[in-house]
Specification:
Blueprint (H helix, E strand, L loop, with lengths): L19 E6 L8 E3 L3 E14 L11 E15 L11 H8 L10 E8 L12 E13 L9 E8 L4 E2 L15 E6 L8 E7 L6 E4 L2 E2 L2 E5 L2 E5 L6 E2 L2 E5 L2 E2 L6 E2 L1
Antiparallel strand pairs: 1-2, 1-5, 3-4, 4-7, 5-6, 6-7, 6-8, 9-10, 10-14, 11-12, 11-16, 13-14, 15-18, 16-17
Amino acid sequence: MNTYSPELPAGSSLGKSYEYGVDLNLASALAPLWQAVRRILNVNPQMTPITMDAASYDDKGSPNADVSAWSWVLTFNVWVNRNTSTGLLPPELLALQQRYGDAKGNAAIIEARWYHKPADGSKPDPREAFQGTATVGITRVNTGADGANEQWQVTLTGKGYATRIDNPFDGWADSTDVPEIVSISPAGQSAGEQVTIAGANFVGATGVTVGGETAQFIVVSSSTIVAVIPAAAAGDAPVVVTGVAGASDPATYTVA
């Protein structure tokens, strides 16, 4: 006799609608530079089986189909923030904007990944994560005359299949930890060239300076930042990363 119990296994916790993340690759497939989409909501990955007929006389007229592939679409909304000095979008929204409207061919596609991202510090589902390449559609919402905050609805339509990957989420940043720089490479870069800053507590970083000059940067992970040497930086140019909890100690660097 099979009896039913509504009790869940010990340690179970009800998931929340906001426990999902989306990253975009701002570089190439061979040397990816993943950036989380910030201020995101309504994340909805849809994966649909593509089937082919496999019916035979043995099915006595009933349908019988095998799954041969999967198509996918990822939709989400995002609040649109812009730099008040330049008018530019954050890197992840700029990447979407550049692939929309007049882009064609490979210039119109982007690599994305989406994954379970628990909010309470519990372990993310290691299997609930996918990655694929897609075309980009953007619809502007909140278009009324009431002055509502700007928002986009983004539709990523898969080109080919999505691959199940290891969940890349490694936890939320602790705002009480000050950024720490361990190394900067390669040495001797010139203005306009990129450097990789390795260290700790980088998630949520609010600024990077090189020789006191503001640098453009992308937080790749809690331990890696990619920054561009500012045009005005030269010679001995200490690097400082600033976060919510404060600024790192200056790290020695010489600009060529």
